[in-house]
Design goal:
The complex is a heterodimer. By secondary structure, chain A is mainly α. Chain A contains 26 helices and four strands. In chain A, 52% of the residues are buried. Chain B is built from four helices and no strands. Classes of the chains: A mainly alpha, B mainly alpha. The interface between A and B is large, with 78 and 50 residues.
């Protein structure tokens, strides 16, 4: 057979690898800042650009999409070429992909600092950037499939299946969750509201973890672990089961348990058996990784690369066990809204994604620069420091979460809340936040050992931008050959493979999404729930801009410990005009769903809100809430009101019905001013010198509206 | 999420969705396991297990493990 000569594109891999390192440092530095802010509020710097509400999405997005994202692309561009014995399909596409992705990251950072956000966790980017992501993602997929079609290898190795599933599913998730209606050149409202918005958001959120943080990294594991250990994969059979079970199951099993109460008994039993059985694919993957090292454990002692990979795979096993446990109802009632969630995701991000990326980089640099690692000792130091950092990060948070949740739920013998003041429960766990900073600092500092080590390694060798290679031409009969199994045939049919994996995720997706669409007509409207006034709408957008929902939930669960603390539990019908929903997922501060109920447990006066936003520490010395002085200084931009009202009307909020006058968008600002003057007058009467055109007035209007609708007695 | 499941239950025949997806998944999973454990695939699997390790790696002096 004819031998063909070609070259691998190493330059693009090198760039993606450098980008991973750079964004890793940036993302974790911002994470360290966020941790500091929670421990010492002074680190919010009293600046709108640097408060926790804006910093937190920068950290999460930087780590997920910039650090892990570039890590995925470095891994794909390196391994795909070698597994397929072909150069990437188009150098041009590779570079459009690279620079496009970096531009998206930079624009994300800028918009978040400016408070431009959709508020949806891990999907905070606004519509123009969403479109850019879609385009660049298609470029990536085009380049990948082009390469697959031009390959010289017969079969698609298991890593490539994971890459294909990643590409397809992330595309579906991103588009599905980003359907939004722009009201300005940069901002938008999601088409879904309330319950529906929450369901779609967490369908996305759950599966983004699966298909951005997990499947591509499993592909990475299946390639780089055998390479680094120089051992064959433990079981290909297990990897096939691992792949199909994971792809099918993840998307299917997300918030699916919501439906279980409506299931027939036989299906419930089967479901339970299956849920337990299905820890198997995740753990199958873990064992497949760990057992690849059978008979080679002595190498782990000597190689930092392998140490990183072993801990990464173990962290994957821990996270995938902990996750299902946290979805059990009674566990969830304890862990939800606490730092347990934060600890859980950090085991995944620091352990699984972080350590696997580091392992890959320690393998890639010597390989690509054709030299030895500069210092195995430094790499080992990085490993131990990073591991310690992770432990010091996660353990205090687990401990703090347990302490806090038990405090939330504790009653005195008289049946009163033992800790009625939310702040007490924060003050109690504050030392844990301090230790967490130390853990984060260790992990962050250890990065620099890697940076130095890798730069030194690169300096001691030379990376050929184009690495010469040769391979026989592809022998690929179109039809199935005699004796060729179905899956074996499928493995050399990329298009059919992609279609089948798309079908696999769509079946799961469809059966989960259809009820979500049906639910809209099933949420009973509550007569007294009315659309927001224009001023409240503006205030709500300030609430979103400042990221209040990162620390305050708006969802009182039907537990006595919560109704005693906050008031009436939340009902689906309350959220029908909430584009987007602001339920939140973490309570660093108290729930705000009932803060506007006059005479309610959470009620505060306008004056209190004003003073509290200006200086929370003046009201409660122990408070860790940032100060928001600019809300008092800055004038509210009311020029956006008509466009916002029009967008909301298009989305089904009845501003076009009675009692609203026709063309309400044009006169809405009159209502806005009137309501603002009332609030300003109240503040003035209580000795506060403020005019009615400040942002704080709108925010107070919104806060005073929360929960008020259903508290109105008819 | 009790709040949500309550309303989801109100959808007519909502039990159909989880039941059918569970069945589809179960059948698919069972089929996949059956296929993966078929005897005839043994040699092929062995070959694929070392697929990532090309000749270059097999003979190399383990650059990374020094």
């Amino acid at each position: 057979m004819e031998t063909q000569h070609f070259s691998y594109d190493n330059k693009i891999v090198k760039y993606f690898a450098y980008a991973t390192i750079l964004w890793g440092v940036v993302g974790m530095l911002v994470g360290l800042l966020a941790a500091l802010q929670l421990a010492f509020p002074v680190f919010n710097f009293n600046l709108e650009y640097t408060t926790f509400g804006r910093i937190r999405p920068i950290h999460t997005n930087a780590v997920i999409f910039a650090f892990v994202g570039n890590g995925i692309f470095a891994a794909v561009y390196y391994s795909l070429q070698r597994l397929l014995k072909a150069r990437m399909f188009s150098d041009k596409l590779s570079w459009v992909h690279f620079w496009g992705w970096q531009a998206i990251i930079v624009s994300a950072a800028i918009t978040f600092v400016l408070g431009i956000t959709t508020s949806k966790e891990y999907a905070e980017l606004e519509w123009p950037i969403d479109i850019a992501i879609t385009i660049i993602w298609v470029v990536f997929g085009w380049n990948m499939f082009g390469t697959i079609l031009r390959r010289r290898a017969d079969h698609l190795y298991v890593s490539i299946w994971f890459y294909i599933a990643t590409f397809v599913t992330v595309a579906v998730l991103h588009i599905g969750n980003s359907i939004e209606l722009p009201y300005s050149w940069i901002q938008s409202y999601p088409v879904y509201a309330g319950v529906q918005d929450a369901l779609v958001q967490w369908w996305y959120g759950h599966n983004a973890v699966a298909f951005f943080l997990t499947t591509p990294y499993l592909g990475l594991m299946y390639y780089f672990l055998p390479k680094a250990a120089n051992r064959p994969v433990y079981s290909y059979r297990l990897s096939i089961i691992h792949f199909w079970a994971l792809v099918f199951l993840y998307i299917w099993a997300g918030p699916h348990h919501l439906l279980y109460t409506a299931l027939p008994d036989w299906a419930q039993s089967l479901g339970v058996v299956f849920s337990i059985m299905l820890i198997a694919p995740s753990w199958g993957g873990m064992f497949n990784g760990l057992l690849t090292l059978r008979g080679a454990w002595d190498k782990v002692r000597d190689s930092a690369t392998l140490k990183f990979m072993v801990v990464a795979v173990t962290a994957y096993g821990m996270s995938t066990f902990e996750g299902p446990m946290m979805s059990l109802k009674w566990v969830n009632s304890l862990t939800h809204y606490t730092d347990w969630t934060i600890a859980h995701v950090h085991i995944g991000a620091m352990g699984w994604n972080g350590f696997l990326t580091f392992g890959m980089l320690y393998y890639l640099f010597p390989k690509m620069w054709k030299t030895k690692l500069y210092s195995e000792k430094l790499a080992n130091a990085h490993f131990w420091m990073g591991t310690l950092g992770m432990i010091f990060y996660a353990l205090p948070l687990y401990w703090g979460a347990v302490v806090q949740t038990l405090m939330w739920k504790e009653f005195t013998p008289d049946g009163l809340l033992a800790y009625p003041n939310f702040l007490e429960t924060i003050t109690q766990i504050l030392p844990m936040y301090h230790v967490r900073v130390l853990g984060g600092l260790l992990y962050f500092a250890s990065l620099f050992l890697m940076v130095y080590n890798l730069l030194k390694t690169a300096a001691s060798g030379k990376c050929a931008d184009n690495e010469e290679a040769s391979a026989p031409a592809l022998h690929a009969p179109k039809k199935r050959e005699k004796g060729e199994g179905l899956h074996r045939w499928l493995e050399r049919k990329p298009i059919q493979f992609m279609i089948l994996s798309t079908v696999a995720i769509l079946i799961g997706g469809a059966f989960e999404i259809i009820p979500t669409y049906l639910i809209k007509s099933n949420v009973p409207t509550i007569e007294s729930v009315k659309p927001y006034t224009p001023l409240e709408l503006q205030g709500r957008d300030i609430y979103i801009r400042e990221g209040c929902n990162t620390c305050h939930s708006q969802m009182v669960r039907p537990f006595r410990s919560e109704t005693e603390r906050y008031g009436e539990y939340s009902k689906a019908g309350e959220f029908v005009y909430d584009h987007p929903h602001l339920w939140g997922s973490k309570r660093t501060g108290p729930d705000l769903a009932r803060t506007g109920v006059p005479g309610g447990k959470m009620y505060k006066t306008n004056v209190w809100h004003y003073n509290h936003m200006l200086d929370p520490q003046k009201m409660n010395a122990q408070s860790i809430m940032p100060k928001y002085p600019w809300l008092i200084k800055d004038e509210l931009d009311i020029s956006s009101t008509p466009a916002k009202i029009r967008a909301m009307t298009t989305l089904g909020v009845p501003y076009d019905e009675e009692p609203y006058p026709a063309n309400y968008d044009q006169v809405a600002n009159e209502d806005l001013k009137k309501q603002a003057q009332e609030i300003a007058a109240d503040l003035n009467a209580n000795g506060i010198d403020v005019t009615s055109d400040r942002e704080i007035i709108a925010l107070i209007a919104y806060l005073q509206r929360l929960g008020r609708d259903i508290s109105v007695k008819e | 999420m009790k709040l949500v499941s309550h309303y989801l239950q109100g959808i007519a025949d909502v039990g159909f969705f989880p039941s059918i997806s569970l069945m589809i998944f179960f059948l698919f999973f069972a089929g996949m396991v059956w296929w993966a454990f078929k005897k005839s695939n043994k040699t092929y699997f062995a070959q694929m297990e070392s697929y990532a390790l090309d000749e270059d790696d097999m003979n190399s002096s383990e650059i990374n493990n020094n």
